[in-house]
Amino acid sequence: MKSIFLTQINNCRWLAACLLPALLASQALVGAEIPELLTCADGTKVTTSGQWEAQRRGEVLELFRAHVFGRNPVDRPADLKFERVVPDAEMLDGKAIRKQIKASFSGPGGQHSFVFTAFIPKSSKPVPAFLLICNRGYENIDPDRVEKSSFWPVEQIVERGYAALAFRNAELDPDHHDGWTNGVHQIFQPDPKLRTSDSWGTLAAWAWGASRVMDWIESEPLINAGRVGVLGHSRGGKTALWCGAQDNRFALTISNNSGCGGAKLNRMELPKSEPIARINKNFPHWFCERFKEYSANENALPVDQHMLIALLAPRLAYVASATGDDWAGQPGEFQSCVLAAPAWGLYGLKGLGTTAFPAPDTPIHSGYIGYHLRSGKHNLTEYDWKCYMDFADKHWR
Ligand code: GCU
């Protein structure tokens, strides 16, 4: 266990740049013990990528399943099938092909389906792609491009040579605490009474949906399945991290303003940020039942969120914060990246490449973990998308 306070006082630039006076005064921070990323349950210290993959990575993944997000009852359903909702269409002045696909499957509770859209730029070779887990209304992912939202700026994404894919989270599971009687929870575990403390929550169901879109991408010759980024904003960002952690087919995972339960370090108690007690009270369906044991009890949690980011190594990871988003705990989102970086070090790769909290609008893109602090409010904007594409260009082009 390492004291985050010591980590920080060893880093004057970080302190100077970001610590709010209230943060320094926080006794909770001073005492916080951060679970060690690279120490196995049996005390073995991890010093190689081989050890990480053979032992520690699986342990960490299991801790997140058992204590935070819950366990998926099924991976890819045997009868998963994809069909076109409408014929493929040329869009964006002929620059892209639009595909609208319905994914259908069944489980003991019956049949279910959800729809996703893909805009694929015309190209002589398979293109890289971004998949957005959309937690906002349909108008943000308009397949007809009548409504154009910065949440999913298809025109800009296609212009830069990336395919843009999106689906609506609520089609997998409505975003309500409704007793697990609908969505994919009901399909795969029809009797809610049989749920256990580690049964999957709603964020896990959405993440599972993103993996089903990846199943389709793997069958789509126009997309390079080895270069796909999954991203989400806020609750969608928490979901993207859990998706990328479990599904290593995603070469890049992006958390936009994900905050508590996402990129923000739980033990960094920032006065204005969301604590576990609040998220469990307001959104009791997001995590597994056992996560409630950690309400106002952060220090008992056997993981912290830097370990979730570390599960993405050695693939690409990106975390973004916004200056006006104290609720997401920006310094805590950044600090998770700092503490996750040693996982990339095991592979001889640069993680974040710095421990200094950056000034607004100065993205850190030098390693395998990207980070930026955007000026402005809690949102997913064209600026954020530009940063994600710049980062992907740097690694993939
Ligand atoms: C609430 C919630 C956050 C979440 C956000 C969102 O503010 O407390 O945890 O990230 O909604 O999804 O927009």
Topology:
Layout: E1 2-3, H1 4-9, H2 12-18, H3 21-24, H4 27-31, E2 33-34, H5 49-69, E3 81-91, E4 96-107, E5 110-121, E6 127-134, H6 154-159, E7 163-168, H7 183-188, H8 202-217, E8 223-233, H9 235-246, E9 252-256, H10 276-282, H11 305-310, E10 316-322, H12 330-340, H13 342-345, E11 369-374, H14 382-396
Parallel strand pairs: 6-7, 6-8, 8-9, 9-10, 10-11
Antiparallel strand pairs: 1-2, 3-4, 4-5, 5-7
Alpha-D-glucopyranuronic acid is lined by residues 135, 234-235, 259-260, 274, 279, 282, 327.
CATH superfamily: Alpha/Beta hydrolase fold, catalytic domain
Radius of gyration: 20 Å
Number of helices: 14
User: How many individual β-strands?
Assistant: 11
Strand content: 15-25%
Structural class: alpha/beta
Give me the CATH fold name.
Rossmann fold
Q: SSE order, as H and E?
A: EHHHHEHEEEEHEHHEHEHHEHHEH
CATH architecture: 3-Layer(aba) Sandwich
Strand order within the widest beta sheet:
3-4-5-7-6-8-9-10-11
Overall 3D geometry?
globular
Distance from N terminus to C terminus (CA atoms, Å) equals: 39 Å
Summed over residues and divided by their number, the pLDDT gives a mean of: 93
Q: What ranges have pLDDT less than 50 throughout 5 or more consecutive residues?
A: 5-31
Q: Please tell me the total number of domains.
A: 1
Bound molecules: alpha-D-glucopyranuronic acid
